[in-house]
Fold this sequence. Notes:
This protein is of the alpha+beta class. It is built from four helices and ten strands; from the N terminus they run H-H-E-E-E-E-E-H-H-E-E-E-E-E. The chain has helices spanning 20-23, 27-33, 122-129, 142-149; strands at residues 38-43, 46-58, 86-91, 95-102, 109-120, 161-162, 165-168, 178-181, 195-198, 214-215.
Amino acid sequence: MTAGAAHPARRSRRRAVLPARFYARDTERVARELLGAVLECHTPEGVAAGRIVETEAYLGEHDAACHAAAGRTGRTEPLYGPPGTAYVYFIYGMHWCVNAVTRARGLPSAVLIRAVAPIDGIALMRARRGASRRDADLTNGPAKLCQAFGIDVRHNGLPLQQPPLLIRAGAPVPDRDVLVTPRIGIRRAADWPLRFTVAGDPFVSRAPAHFPVRRYSR
DNA sequence: TCGAAGATTGTCT
DNA sequence: GACAATCTTCGAG
């Protein structure tokens, strides 16, 4: 399926915005349940929206891969804010990544949104990403989706319940369609199974070869 | 003030 | 699969 084709998630476009209490739960559960939800970004150029198909959980100061492991600093301040806050950070000198702050057991934890399937604003995404890109390459990575959606430091610390950045409930993804793997691109706690993807979705980012994959089970 | 690391991506082989 | 690009952040001195 191409990004321009009709997508099942279109039906969920007008669903309710996820309330802050949605994020005030166990981070792994929030990461799994964000699959199927719809990320929406409003800018003067237009609205971009996409169905979340890949997430990673970062569990707090005891999780060596989580930014909060370094403690409370200027950079990590949003992680200590209310659940349902956007944590947007700059990485490798050129990329932005967006997280939803959670509050499991009072910990500074978050869910990284790694990939979405475009729903609305696809022409805008192509313009931002470069018209020559394949549709599948528009939003199949954390930095790619931020570029396509126009997400940057201006969105850091904003609540995810209102424009310019919000997440709506979407069509639920059944457990049988959810895969669990280790997180991508990290060195510490690299084997913790905290990455959640929608099985078979063409917008899920590429994982390293021979990455362990298992079906999600509660 | 300096140096190293980094939740990535695109390009080349 | 390997590697460069690019710069913010933070710890060390």
